[in-house]
Amino acid sequence: MSQVLLVRHGQASWGAADYDVLSELGEEQSRVLGRSLAARGVRPATVVRGAMRRHRQTAEEAVAAAGWDVEVFEDHGWDEFDHEQMLALHPPGVEQGEELTRAAFQQWFEEATLRWTAGAHAHEYDESFADFGRRVDAALRRTVERLDR
Fold first, then answer.
1. Under a CB-based contact definition with an 8 Å cutoff, are residues 148 and 45 in contact?
2. What pLDDT score was predicted for residue 15?
3. What is the per-residue pLDDT for 79?
4. DSSP string spanning 50-79?
5. Cα separation values, 17 from 13, 39, 81, 101, Å
6. Judging by beta carbons within 10 Å of its beta carbon (0-12, 13-18, 19+), is residue 12 exposed, middle or buried?
């Protein structure tokens, strides 16, 4: 029987000019993932990843560390939602010029996520939460179609 393992990308580069790149820790997390799965006897017939750079880097590092000879497919359906737009549509609760701490950012992110997922303001987003869900559901269906029955 086939199974699907969903893995989030390794740590991205928080605070860097280009967030869509793995940090050194993210690269190591990806290698640890590959070695750990291989040690458990996991031998995927297919690897599917999103189209973002951190998705590609995570898959490449994990596959190489595991020693798998497997084709990696790209599917934009697995890409993340636009967190920057989500945050922009729900400004942080800090005064202009005030430093945004990690704790304050976490609170802002949670509040902005609740606003987006609630759906009351869906028309303000390029991709509503419902549309995001449908996109990911479709990606999962395409992934399952690649599997052996």
1. yes
2. 76
3. 97
4. -SSHHHHHHHHHHHHHHT----EEE-GGGP
5. 8, 36, 19, 18
6. buried
AA letter at 20: D
Please state the pTM of the whole predicted model: 0.86
Rounded Cα–Cα distance for residues 6 and 127 (Å): 22
Average pLDDT over residues 73-82: 97
pLDDT in tens, 104-129: 889 999 999 999 999 999 999 999 99
3-state DSSP assignment of residue 22: strand
d(CA 135, CA 78): 8
**Six token digits for residue 141:** 């269906």
In this structure, are residues 53 and 20 in contact, taking their beta carbons and an 8 Å threshold?
yes
